[in-house]
Amino acid sequence: MQLQEQLVADMKSAMKSGQKDRLAVIRMLLSDVKNIDLLPGKPTAESVVAAYRKKLQKSSEEYEKLGRPDEVTKLKAEMAIVDEYLPTKASAEQTTALVEAFLASHPFAASQVGQAIGAFMKAHGQSVDAAIASQLIRQKL
């Protein structure tokens, strides 16, 4: 559990330096990672952290609609902390290159867009943004 060890170390350093907001986020992530065994489907630690990030994003969007900029700012700060524990995604240019190389080596018809997206995501998974990859594949086919 490399991520769990990193979270514990970061929690200790946040406690020592008195970063209360950072400490609260790290404790939440650590709790979620420790409870993986209780979740259905046995997700990975990275997917649990990504799910927490997604919850924060949705909350931020809701507070933005309600006109609560102070809450949005707080949630964006929390998302920045969570992003430190997520693998970095490929940029749009890198994703374009990956899609072009994938489609060159795997001939798909225009009617097989869903299969192409599924195969691409299976091959490249967490390293690319699914929305960008899906849009690029739809444009190319």
What is the tally of beta strands? Answer: 0
Q: Measured on Cα atoms, how large is the radius of gyration?
A: 18 Å
Structural class: mainly alpha
Counted by DSSP, the helix tally is: 7
- Pick out the low-confidence regions: none
Distance between the termini: 40 Å
Overall body shape? elongated
The top-level CATH class of the largest domain is Mainly Alpha
Mean pLDDT across the residues is: 89
Corresponding CATH architecture of the largest domain: Orthogonal Bundle
State which percent range the strand residues make up.
under 5%
Could you please describe the fold and organization of this structure?
By secondary structure, this protein is mostly helical. It has two domains: 2-83, Hypothetical Protein Yqey, Chain: A, domain1 (Orthogonal Bundle); 92-140, no CATH class. Helices cover 74% and strands 0% of the residues. The protein is built from seven helices and no strands. It has helices spanning 2-17, 20-34, 45-66, 69-83, 92-105, 113-124, 130-140. Helix 3 (45-66) packs antiparallel against helix 4 (69-83). The longest helix is centred in the middle third of the chain and has 22 residues, at 45-66.
